[in-house]
Amino acid sequence: MIAPQDRRIIRVEHLNLIPPPVTKQQGRMSERKGAYASTASDTNFRRKWDKEEYAEKARQRDAEEKERMQENEERLKTGKKPRKGAKKDVPTPTELMKLRDYDLELEKNLNKTIVVANPSGRGPGQPGFFCEKCNRTYRDTAAYLDHINSRAHLRMLGQKTQIERSTVEQVRERIAFLREQRREASKAKEFDFNKRLAEVKAKADAERAAKKAQKKAEKEKARMELLKDVTVQQDDDMAQMMGFAGFGSSKK
Amino acid sequence: MANTTVRGATAIHGQNPQFLVETVIRNRIYESLYWKERCFALTAATLIDRAIEMNAIGGVYGNNVPTEFICLLLKLLQIQPEKEILIEYLQADEFKYLRALAAMYIRMTFQAAEVYEILEPLLKDYRKLRLRDVGGYSLTYMDEFVDQLLHEERSLTLALSFWVALCLAQSLTLSF
Ligand SMILES: [Zn+2]
After folding, report:
1. Strand A95-97, strand A159-163: pairing
2. Would B2 be classed as within a structural domain?
3. Which tens digits make up the pLDDT trace of A206-250?
4. Are the beta carbons of A99 and B42 separated by less than 8 Å?
């Protein structure tokens, strides 16, 4: 057991972090290297930590934090709420909430197998939906939709969270436009119908003409056969009469 | 935001207009993909585009899945367009589902006398409407739908204001 006052003393000493003097025994220990201190070249593929770089990062972070703390103190003095995170540079919202004028293509990669292009676990090329504006990835459509409808995302786009109020004129215009569009579409369909009808008729006519021509050709051919047959027959008769057969024509 | 009622909206029957759609259905709408993807940031003008794409009226179908019709109805409650705009919707007679949507909205939010005055001419519209509900699709007509709006306290699984229904009943008996 250590008495409370002793313990306090021990703790203080510990905080000073004075390295204990190196004894002879320890020196010898460091000569005999353990398994972890091996210099075998087959472990060279391992990542080497650049201590200097990380120390620099830590210093930077500390400086930022210090700055934030100072700022928060100022803010508290003037009666404002302290800032929790680092200051983000988002644009001030200038326009009203706008309708998305592009297709979200949520089902673009549905039922597809895709190679994950970026195995680092952050940034684009991850499985899921990525928001380029905010550099964030979402696992499913629901989370992604929630994000792109969110205040934070709209802030990044410089949009307010209020929608534009349509006037009666705008509504009238829209209706007139859609009416015209529909009329055009139906006219186009009608036009298509007439065109198609003409096409069908032309095709039928062509077919009929072809059939007619074929029939005519067949008739002509038959007539020619008949004519030839008659002449051959006559020849045969003559040959038989004269005592020799023909050359064995298939036609008799 | 995506689900909040427009700033400066007037209370309908003493409450937030969006509350006219019951909480359970309203939450199903807020969760639905159609609401999040297609109804975001719609204005009274751009809502027409969605309304003419509709092919059925209805409340919910399947396992409490909200129809596009009820999603757009909630959107109307959210943005609360002016009366003139709603009249424009009704007058665009080639877009029958837009007309049905506006009729439903007017029945839910207007005072009884106005409701009757505005909707009565629609009783002469005999066009077919498709109705989607739990049992699937069925056929109804515009005049039937409007008649139901004028006479009943519920339509398409939505409670219509009882007070307006009562006033309507009185004005109907007075007019006959
Ligand atoms: Zn975003």
Report:
1. parallel
2. no
3. 999 999 999 999 999 999 888 887 776 666 666 666 666 555 555
4. yes
Picking from A104, A162, A168 by the largest number of B CB atoms within 10 A of its own CB, the best residue to mutate is: A168
Nearest beta carbon to residue A163 from set B31, B41, B92: B41
CB–CB of A118/A124 below 8 Å?
yes
Q: Does a structural domain hold residue B68? A: yes
Q: Which of A146, A170, A182 sits opposite B45 (nearest CB)?
A: A170
Structural contact between residues A144 and A131, judged by C-beta atoms closer than 8 angstroms: yes
Residue B152 lies in a domain: yes
Domain membership of residue B5 (yes or no) is no
Tell me the sheet residues that pair with A97: A163
Out of B37, B48, B79, name the one closest to residue A163 (CB): B79
Say how many CB pairs under 8 Å bridge A and B: 76
State which residues form the domain around B57.
Answer: 19-169
Interface predicted TM-score (ipTM) of this complex, two decimals: 0.85
Ligand 1 center to residue B74 CA distance, Å?
26
- Strands (E) in chain A, as ranges, are 95-97, 129-131, 136-138, 159-163
- Chain A residues touching B2 at Cβ < 8 A: 149-150
Q: Count CA atoms closer than 13 A to B113's CA, side-chain side.
A: 0
Domains of chain B: total: 1
Q: What is the pTM of this model?
A: 0.67
Q: Coil, strand or helix: which one is A50?
A: coil
